[in-house]
Request: fold
Amino acid sequence: MSKSRYASNWKEIATAVKESVGWCCQKCGRVCLKPGEKTQSWTLSERRAYTLQVHHWNFNPEDNRLENLAPLCSSCHLHYHRFGRGNISPGQLSLELTIKN
Ligand SMILES: [Zn+2]
Ligand SMILES: [Zn+2]
Reply:
């Protein structure tokens, strides 16, 4: 039994959303790393900063309608969770942040 509220095909959904916007953050426009892009000379924090994540506007990870999804770079994403509605549990955020491409 999985505790995850994410759809089993969430990874595919997230990748499709990111591809549809050309791997750009929808808030600051930062172009993020595509899967498999070479970053040998990058530090971990640089790579993390350029990782595109998919945010749920209504903070409901079960709601995967396209209008509820927003590709955001990690710092913009964190901003929404820190200063957004604030009703999200830290556990849920870390789950979302650990989703890799
Ligand atoms: Zn951003
Ligand atoms: Zn989010």
